[in-house]
């Protein structure tokens, strides 16, 4: 006799961290949902975008990223590992994106240096005490 | 007279910062940046021919975003470090535009600046795509930046489609699909060398 206590077919594991962490093909839905809602509002959508629109945009973005990464891997395979430069190469024909990426990277460097300087200062202050 | 928001959008050859969450000292850096932002906000008030509504809306909007801030580590809009990157002429223009924003425009601009993909989620996605563990932080930063700009292109094109069809209200999936189709025609979407068989 069947005594299945579960409500229905097992849904995708929501908290199955062990399953999800290994290059799992199951993609959780709504991973970027919250971020996307803010983003879409910022770019011109309603303050409360329609959920189906958000889902669709998420699908499109994940597909876009996937295709980009595969292209980058193709480029990188000749050389070896996948590097950040491969992505920069991919957007070389798109000046706004390229400019934005270089800007982000240089800001990241600046922050790193600033943080290092901050740590050094902390040390000298600590030893001074 | 050009809509100040449109003008601000056009100014964006170097779009404003995406958040770059630090690995350690998240609290320390966030506090430091918060301090900056307060100063910058105070600075932007003296050009006070501007309606007091705009900086107040910035403050109110910041309150709403604060919960997100805790989780998303470093989403601060650095008004002191505007996209011009130190170019005084551009900074003046930016301040002039920002001071004239309505409350709605300010809130939208704030969302535009602060929104971004969570680094953890992005890293997880990239790891699952590449199958390898070697996803460096700069890589997540770059991909997040590119993806955000792509979302921008999608939404703006969708809005354009809506004005053509003379529709209003929230964007619907049909608009997004049409926008996606147009972007594809423009060649802005990377083409799959192998067609996708199973979704």
UniProtKB/TrEMBL annotation, chain A:
Top-level taxon in the UniProt lineage: Eukaryota
Region described as Disordered: spans on this chain: 1-26
Gene Ontology MF, one: protein heterodimerization activity
Coiled coil: none
GO terms for cellular component: nucleus
Subcellular location, record wording: Nucleus
SUPFAM superfamilies reported in the protein's UniProt record: Histone-fold (SSF47113)
Keyword Transcription regulation: yes
Any matching Pfam family: TFIID-18kDa
Protein name: Transcription initiation factor TFIID subunit 13
């Amino acid at each position: 006799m069947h005594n299945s206590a579960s409500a229905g077919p097992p849904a995708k594991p929501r908290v199955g961290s062990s399953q999800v962490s290994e290059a799992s093909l199951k993609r959780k839905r709504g991973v970027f949902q919250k971020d996307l809602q803010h983003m879409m509002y910022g770019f011109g959508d309603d303050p409360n975008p329609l959920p189906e629109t958000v889902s669709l945009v998420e699908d499109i973005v994940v597909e876009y990223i996937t295709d980009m990464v595969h292209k980058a891997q193709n480029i990188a395979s000749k050389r070896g590992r996948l590097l950040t430069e491969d992505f920069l190469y991919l957007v070389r024909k798109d000046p706004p994106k390229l400019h934005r990426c270089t800007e982000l990277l240089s800001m990241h460097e600046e922050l790193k240096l600033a943080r290092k300087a901050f740590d050094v200062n902390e040390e000298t202050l600590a030893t001074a005490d | 007279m050009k809509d100040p928001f449109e003008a601000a959008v056009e100014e964006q050859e170097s779009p404003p910062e995406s958040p770059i969450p630090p690995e350690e000292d998240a609290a320390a850096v966030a506090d430091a940046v918060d301090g900056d932002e307060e100063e910058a906000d105070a600075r932007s008030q003296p050009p006070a021919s501007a309606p007091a509504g705009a900086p107040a809306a910035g403050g109110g909007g910041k309150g709403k975003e604060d919960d997100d801030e805790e989780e998303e580590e470093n989403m601060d809009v650095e008004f002191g470090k505007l996209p011009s990157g130190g170019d005084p002429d551009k900074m003046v223009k930016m301040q002039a535009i920002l001071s004239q924003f309505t409350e709605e425009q300010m809130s939208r601009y704030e969302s535009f600046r602060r929104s971004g993909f969570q680094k953890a989620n992005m890293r997880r996605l990239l790891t699952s795509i590449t199958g390898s563990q070697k996803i460096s932080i700069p890589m997540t930063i770059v991909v997040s930046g590119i993806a955000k700009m792509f979302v921008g292109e999608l939404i703006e094109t969708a809005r354009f489609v809506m004005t053509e069809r003379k529709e209003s209200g929230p964007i619907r999936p049909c608009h997004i699909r049409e926008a996606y189709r147009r972007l594809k025609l423009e060649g802005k979407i990377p083409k799959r060398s192998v067609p996708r068989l199973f979704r």
